[in-house]
Amino acid sequence: MKTLLIITSLALLCAPCFAQLGANFKECEAKYGRPSSSYPATGEAIYKKSGWQVEIHFIAGRAAVVTYLKLEGEFDTADMSRLLDDNGKDWQVTKATNIVTVYAGPDGRTATWDPTDHTFAFFSKAWKDYIAAKDAKRAQQN
């Protein structure tokens, strides 16, 4: 029993720890270290750790968009399930084609799996509100 507990603990330590929608910059830095690239003007940071690249767009200090790219190995269904769980519960598939799979969460979150470039992107409601406000402002100016 003790051996099983040790093996399980080691497996959990080796599993990638993913950023989550709503995480702040310090929480992301604690998981990934310093960003490999950072763009303060756009609120974007790119992290690389444990065979993953994670691109995060922050709004008001919180992760509003998190995009995952697996740099080593195949992006499998276990990875997808873990990412869905890490970024909220109760995801529902709203569209599935050979080009994209779109998921919706109960609080306005969305996610897209793109098999062509092997990315899984998660969008918070704050991001959708931000884009809608920018679009409304642009329409007002025209």
Tell me what the structure shows.
The protein has 4 helices and 8 strands; from the N terminus they run ααββββαββββα. With 142 residues, the chain is of the alpha+beta class. The protein has one domain. An 8-stranded antiparallel β-sheet has the order 1-2-3-4-8-7-6-5. A hairpin with a 2-residue loop joins β3 and β4. It is globular, with a radius of gyration of 17 Å. The chain starts with a helix and ends with a helix. 19% of the residues are buried.
Note the total helix count: 4
N-end to C-end Cα span: 68 Å
What structural category do the secondary elements indicate? alpha+beta
Helix proportion range:
25-40%
Overall pLDDT score: 86
Sheet with the most strands: spatial strand order: 1-2-3-4-8-7-6-5
Shape: globular
Classify the beta-strand content into a percent band: 25-35%
How much is the radius of gyration in Å?
A: 17 Å
Q: What is the N-to-C order of secondary-structure elements (H for helix, E for strand)?
A: HHEEEEHEEEEH
Low-confidence stretches: 3-17
Total beta strand runs: 8
The tally of domains stands at 1
**Major pleated sheet:** 8 strands, antiparallel
